[in-house]
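fyi for ur records
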Amino acid sequence: MPTLNSALHIPAHVSFSVVGKDAFLLNTQTNKYYGLEEVGARLWQLLNEGASLQNAHQTILKEYTVEPAELEKDLLELIAQLMENGLVELVAA
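which gave:
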């Protein structure tokens, strides 16, 4: 299970587009789409810009009204789902 200190990598086989406040990810190896709503899309944008998961957590805390522990839980659950779908990978330390 990832933590906020986990280093993540977006594989080359993942393409994405942002439409409004949503993001749509495509795993080109499986040809499956994955949709992210507003906060998930914001996380994806931050990760794509090179932000660490910890920095993304801090940025989202500043932009949305949410408890830190709740946001951490939600982000880690989302990252786990993205990993299961081959959309992000943990970087070995």
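The beta strands are 8-9, 14-19, 22-27, 32-36, 89-90. thats all i got for now
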